[in-house]
Write a structure and sequence with these properties.
Layout lengths: L5 H18 L1 H19 L17 H13 L4 E8 L7 H15 L4 E7 L10 E3 L2 E3 L11 H12 L15 E8 L6 H16 L4 E6 L1 H12 L2 H20 L2 H24 L10 H27 L4 H28 L7 H15 L1 H7 L1 H7 L5 H6 L4 H13 L2 H22 L19 H13 L3 E9 L8 H15 L4 E6 H11 L14 H12 L4 H4 L9 E8 L4 H17 L5 E7 H36 L2 H24 L8 H10 L2 H16 L4 H10 L1 H16 L8 H31 L7 H4 L11 H8 L1
Antiparallel strand pairs: 1-5, 1-6, 2-5, 3-4, 7-9, 7-10, 8-9
Helix pairs in contact: 1-11, 1-32, 2-9, 3-24, 4-6, 6-7, 8-9, 8-29, 9-10, 9-12, 10-11, 10-12, 10-29, 11-12, 11-14, 11-24, 11-26, 11-27, 16-28, 16-29, 17-25, 17-30, 20-21, 23-24, 24-25, 24-26, 25-26, 25-27, 25-30, 26-30, 27-28, 27-30, 29-30
Length: 805
């Protein structure tokens, strides 16, 4: 394979392209302005919304079960309202009256599934009553109790009903639960959140009762509530970035030029999202922010080189523009291509929201090609040239002196070995934390909000009182009509319940077997020894008849279909922590495999736990593939660019180190790899490789000018490394406002990306030079890159325009 750097043979090619762009500057400028106006029009119409269906892995068999049966047996989107007595128990007339009214308020929420409301105050919550040989099925609460006798009657009913006591009323009688499922296609998180606050919490919470609300719609409602705070955070980040750019370049042009690149990238990215029908997810806002910041990063590198060439060319603007464009064309384009390919890898995961992020983010960063490589020379042409004295004065400021000092030390004989030793220590230290990295949520609390947030506090309080409220729904499918009236099937369902209830993360369960046992016991004066499943099929059929005969189909289908062919076993889990979910699912699979049935089968799995398990399994299945393809595409791009396999390996050094450190940080900080964090982590794979590319390209350029390897690397670190240093410092600084967000996910993901950039940068300016000096590659050899460089005496623009005609 040839080791000749393409810039050695194509330097004049990129110069000719630069002069051509300047010659056609007016059509390019007009076309860009028109297209930007079009994109901007669409950018301001982008909506911010979240659809639950976009968050699930649509190819997973669990999701198929969820989709088929969510409307009948319940899905993953449910709101749980706990009414807790501040003193005594809930069994007082005023508190029971409030439970009844709150249940009715929940029934009025938009998008609620009226047949999936569970509460002792709901019309569909019945108990079996046998009196004088007559069987009836009255609701637990017909109306608010009017006397102590009625209160005591309700208490007795609850205590003798397995489907109520410990499930809808806590075992200490201090709290009642109202659970409501929602139609997933009609979820409006912001409206549901507001209605719950106004019509339930504010109205009914008082000195008597405390109200806690949890569930996925409530969680995303809080996220929408906090999303309004992101605007001032974003503006603060922009202000900090502008101030840093102005301080670094010492004039307003230095701040304006990267801002134009970032602004165009944002308008084009948002406009593209609207054109293809995508919406912004409040949890993914940190990604477009950093994509825009990456556009600014490329522009800083170009602007810094423009100032350098301006001073070198004797304050001649046009040759400086072309020289900066020609020397940075290859690393800039390669960096953008690797960023784009790294993002597109996310589309491999069969989750709609991830695929949308992949496509939109790839286009977003890809648009930098236009703003940075096509429009950039035109903008410089129309901007007034900087003052030469101010440009030269930058070389002596504190930052540039510090960079020069560091560059000298890094390439010294001692510096290279210190770098290698330091990174070896980093790898060893990081490896101790990698084992803590979890697929899924690492804690019981939601990682999207801070532990002390009102949502997590309410969720924790409900879990403490009821032991488990997050559903895992296992569907039981009969092979023919009436299969679920078979004793063997019901006994197997009960065995399944008892087996999974032994898991410490499973609080309670409910199935058709519980209905049979409860009804059977009712006919024997509620004696516990009769709480069994009869051995005769005909008797089971009679018990079902007594329980379901007087109920409308809309109320019976949540237990079983009319043909007694499909039902469910629902487990209420204590949390959705990744390791716990995986263990529960493995236990369920083991039981199902070991206990086959003749007339029915168990199908996993719906509910929040089922969907969470599906997402975790899909992430685990695709994580290695995504990393391999992400690093592989970067490797191939760099090999093609520099015509060297070794160059491809070197470009990955910083990314591999960043990947190790970031994963260790996630393990240490209890940040799990889930549907929300996966795109951020994967996006980071492509980000940062351009740091190495800029350093390598500048080292090649210095070798072409006749420098030895050590001097070439020192010069590369002083120049290209200087701009990279400022870029990373700026990215870290603009991340700081994100840490004030009450959306924990955005705050931590911002820090995570900043960490990724910082580690990639440090590896590119310390470890990469150390490796190059320890084992000098052929593609950096003087005979491979040849002599020459950008032509300082380039043809004036007027002559180029005349030649073009």
């Amino acid at each position: 394979m040839s080791t000749t750097h393409p810039a050695a043979s194509a330097a004049t090619r990129w110069e000719r392209l630069g002069w051509w762009i300047l010659a056609w500057r007016r059509p390019i400028l007009v076309g860009t302005v028109v297209l930007t106006a079009f994109m901007g029009f669409h950018a301001f119409q982008v909506r911010m919304t979240t659809s639950f269906g976009d968050l699930v892995p649509y190819r997973h068999p669990f999701v198929d079960v969820h989709t088929r049966y969510a409307q009948q047996f319940g899905g993953a989107n449910s709101v749980v309202v706990m009414v807790e007595a501040r003193e005594g128990t809930i069994f007082t007339a005023p508190i029971l009256g409030k439970i009844l009214e709150i249940t009715q308020a929940v029934d009025r929420l938009p998008g609620v599934n009226h047949d999936q409301i569970e509460s002792i105050g709901h019309r569909a919550t019945h108990y079996l009553k046998v009196q004088a040989g007559m069987v009836s099925l009255p609701p637990v609460m017909r109306r608010a109790p009017q006397s102590d006798a009625e209160v005591e009657e309700i208490r007795a009913v609850v205590h003798h009903s397995e489907n109520l006591y410990g499930t809808l009323v806590s075992l200490d009688d201090k709290a009642a639960l109202i659970r409501a499922g929602f139609i997933e296609g009609k979820l409006d998180y912001a409206t549901i959140f507001r209605r719950i606050d106004d019509e339930i919490v504010a109205r009914y919470q008082d000195a008597q009762v405390a109200i806690s609300v949890a569930g996925e719609p409530r969680l995303y409602g809080w996220i929408y509530h906090y999303a309004d705070e992101l605007t001032p955070i974003f503006l603060a980040a922009v202000a900090i970035l502008w101030a840093l750019l102005y301080a670094y370049f010492r004039d307003w042009r230095g701040a304006l030029r990267p801002t134009i690149t970032g602004g165009l990238s944002a308008l084009w990215g948002l406009g593209f999202m609207h054109l293809i029908g995508f919406a912004l997810d409040p949890l993914s806002l940190v990604i477009p922010f950093f994509v825009t910041a990456r556009a600014v990063s490329h522009s800083v590198q170009m602007h810094d080189r423009y100032y350098e060439e301006y001073a070198r060319n004797g304050a001649r603007k046009e040759p400086a523009i072309v020289a900066a464009f020609a020397t940075l064309f290859v690393p800039t384009l390669s960096g953008i291509v690797t960023d784009v390919l790294g993002m597109l890898v996310i589309a491999l995961v069969p989750v709609v929201v991830l695929q949308r992020i992949a496509v939109s983010a790839a286009f977003w960063v890809g648009s930098v090609v236009v703003s940075e490589l096509l429009l950039n020379p035109v903008v410089y042409y129309y901007l007034r040239a900087p003052e030469l004295a101010r440009v030269e004065a930058r070389r002596g400021d504190l930052l540039h002196r510090a960079i020069a000092f560091a560059a000298t030390r890094i390439v010294s004989a001692r510096g290279r070995w210190v770098s290698l030793a330091a990174w070896a220590v980093v790898v060893v230290g990081a490896s101790t934390q990698l084992r803590h990295l979890t697929v899924g949520d690492p804690t019981a609390a939601s990682p999207l909000l801070w532990p002390d947030s009102p949502y997590n506090q309410a969720h924790e309080r409900i879990q403490q009182e009821f032991g488990g409220v997050e559903p895992l729904i296992v569907v039981v499918e009969g092979k023919d009509d009436g299969a679920l009236q078979e004793p063997q099937v019901l006994e197997r369902m009960e065995d399944f319940q008892r087996d999974l209830e032994r898991d410490p993360s499973v609080g309670s369960s409910f199935s058709l077997a519980d209905v049979v046992r409860a009804v059977h016991m009712t006919f024997y004066d509620l004696q516990p020894r009769w709480s069994v499943i009869p051995a005769e099929r005909s008797k089971i059929g009679s018990l079902f008849f007594y329980f379901f005969a007087n109920q409308p189909p809309s109320e019976t289908t949540r237990f079983v279909d009319p043909a007694f062919r499909t039902s469910h076993v629902t487990f209420f889990c204590r949390d959705h922590q990744g390791d716990n979910v995986r263990r529960i699912i493995e236990r369920a699979r083991a039981f199902i495999a070991a206990h086959p049935m003749d007339r029915a089968t168990f199908r996993l799995a719906g509910g929040l736990i089922g969907i969470t398990a599906a997402a975790n399994e899909e992430i685990l299945r695709n994580d290695l593939l995504m990393n391999l393809l992400g690093f592989g595409t970067i490797f191939v791009t760099v090999v093609v660019t520099y015509r060297s396999v070794y160059a491809g390996v070197l470009a990955l050094v910083g990314l591999v180190m960043a990947n190790v450190v970031v994963n260790a940080y996630m393990g240490w900080r209890n940040i799990g790899v889930n549907v929300q964090s996966l795109p951020v982590v994967t996006v980071g794979v492509g980000f940062g490789v351009d740091y190495a590319l800029y350093v390598i390209s500048r080292a090649i350029e210095e070798r072409r000018a006749g420098r030895d390897l050590r001097s070439a690397l020192e010069s590369a670190l002083r120049t290209a490394g200087g701009a990279v240093t400022f870029t990373v410092l700026a990215l870290v600084c603009v991340t700081l406002p994100w840490t004030f967000s009450r959306i924990r996910f955005d705050a931590e993901m911002g820090l995570l990306l900043a960490l990724w950039m910082a580690v990639s940068f440090l590896a590119s300016v310390t470890l990469l030079p150390a490796i190059l000096l320890t084992r000098a590659p052929r593609f950096l050899a003087a005979d491979a890159v040849g002599g020459g460089g950008p032509s300082p005496g380039a043809t004036p623009l007027e002559e180029r325009e005349a030649a073009i005609g």
